[in-house]
Write a structure and sequence with these properties.
single chain, 6 helices
């Protein structure tokens, strides 16, 4: 039992470190579109997708968030005010799903960091592509 607890604690610690590094990367870039897109995907998408899979966030929950992001993309038509409003709703949905224990605190922090780094329609487009990569890596690593 103690060994299993230690492994879980280590996974959570690793997740926090990777999430902190991701947030620092976004903060340095100041926005999604200013970030090196190749580095963003290669260095962060796979580990984050894998971490969320290890934390047992199921495929349908991640898909639900990805669908919401796609819906925002289709409905906003590069209208930055609409995007900002819909991102506020996305943060509310994240808080709600966290309260229901459908997602982890780390996933909530991931969404928060991402949405805070979106300042323009171009940033949002970069986020959509990045989130697609995170979703793909999560799908590959998640157990049904």
């Amino acid at each position: 039992m103690d060994n299993r607890y230690n492994k879980q604690a280590q996974k959570q610690n690793d997740a926090r470190q990777k999430l902190d590094a991701f947030r620092e990367f976004l903060n340095k870039a100041d926005s999604f579109s200013n970030a090196d897109q190749v580095e963003l995907v290669e260095k962060y998408a796979e580990p984050l997708g894998s971490i969320f899979a290890d934390m047992r966030i199921n495929r349908s929950q991640i898909r639900s968030f990805y669908d919401t992001v796609l819906q925002i993309s289709y409905q906003s038509e590069d209208d930055e005010q609409k995007i900002a409003l819909q991102l506020a709703y996305l943060r509310a949905k994240t808080a709600y799903k966290r309260a229901q224990r459908h997602i982890t605190k780390e996933f909530e922090q991931f969404i928060e960091a991402c949405t805070k780094a979106i300042r323009s329609a171009r940033d949002f487009e970069a986020f959509v592509r990045f989130f697609e990569a995170v979703y793909a890596y999560h799908y590959v690593n998640a157990k049904s």
